[in-house]
Amino acid sequence: MKIMPNRLDKGFFQYQEEFEQKALEVLRSGWYVLGNEVKSFEEEFAVYTGAKYCVGVASGLDALWIAFRVLGIGQGDEVIVQGNTYIASVMGITINGATPVFVEPDEYNNIDAGKIEEKITKKTKAILAVHLYGQASNMGPVAALADKYHLRLVEDCAQSHGACFEGRMTGTFGDIGCFSFYPSKNLGAFGDGGAIVTDDARIAEDVRVFRNYGSEKRYYNKVVGTNSRLDEMQAGLLRVRLKHLEELTGERRKICNRYLEELKNEKIRLPEIRKGATTVWHQFVIHCKDRDRLMEYLNERQIGTIIHYPIPPHLSEAYQYLGFHKGDFPVTERYADEVLSLPLYNGMTKEEQTMVIEAVNRFV
Ligand SMILES: *Cc1c(COP(=O)(O)O)cnc(C)c1O
Hints:
Blueprint: H1 9-13, H2 16-29, H3 36-49, E1 53-57, H4 60-70, E2 78-82, H5 87-94, E3 99-103, E4 124-130, H6 139-148, E5 152-156, E6 164-165, E7 168-169, E8 176-180, E9 194-198, H7 201-210, E10 215-217, E11 220-221, H8 232-243, H9 245-262, E12 268-269, E13 284-288, H10 291-300, H11 330-338, E14 339-342, H12 350-361
Parallel strand pairs: 2-3, 2-4, 4-5, 5-8
Antiparallel strand pairs: 1-9, 6-7, 8-9, 10-11, 12-13, 13-14
Helix pairs in contact: 2-8, 3-8, 4-5
The structure holds pyridoxal-5'-phosphate.
């Protein structure tokens, strides 16, 4: 038996009938883009997060770059972001011509709030807080800094659907919360999808117009927008999954609590959760100095793992033009060499969990 790092089929079969019924309903409706499913999903997801408005878009990356676009952030502006994020967070900034300013992560793999202030310049316009691996960032100090320096605060919640900091949902701390519904995310569609949430009616309206060629009224275009619409099929299927999201998160929590209790190997550091924060366990990420050997060892035992992420954005080929070098962000770079995501997915059996635990515990 091979254990995959992630698998999506089981998450479908858990609610197969409901998904299939909804798919047929959408197919038979004769309405496939920007209709009632999208409208209902937007209302339901806004309620879920506690934000006033939600606007669906075509992907998490679109949510990010459109967020910065409607906030007017572009050429000559700087946006603060953690160094160890998925590259899409950074692309959301650079697509607009703005410059990412990297900050090292803390021990919870999120932005180190204590290292933000020293990076703020006259050009700084925003902080992008990424809630990596499902855990809420240290939003108290992050929001306070945004406030103090009159910066925009955007959240990348692609991995944190439902995660809270001091009882408040990620995505609702700043101006805009950006979500992805890529199939492997905690709230996954069956294709691409994304959304922004906000309490600001003006921002919601600007995104609504921007995602549909900049038109408020058909064929009357206010701005040069884009085509980034959540389709009816994805929105309908997301509504089904959203109804079960708390159960699905509970199941992930159970698996991870078992990992936390039973994984015992002094060569690995287990994930920790910040006081006041919750995690929805998008990934279960361990740190290991011997990571490559551990990965190889697990692979030989039919246990697949993934590195999130092997190359930090500042060292990726795409961002050579920013002029960074190896050694510029030692913590970020060390994390890239140490992190390993253990198998984790809805529908993972007890036996599969046991196999992972026993194999990791025997690694020497
Ligand atoms: C997945 C992800 C994105 C991008 O979402 P897509 O829907 O794939 O475009 C952005 N940021 C983070 C942190 C992600 O994990």
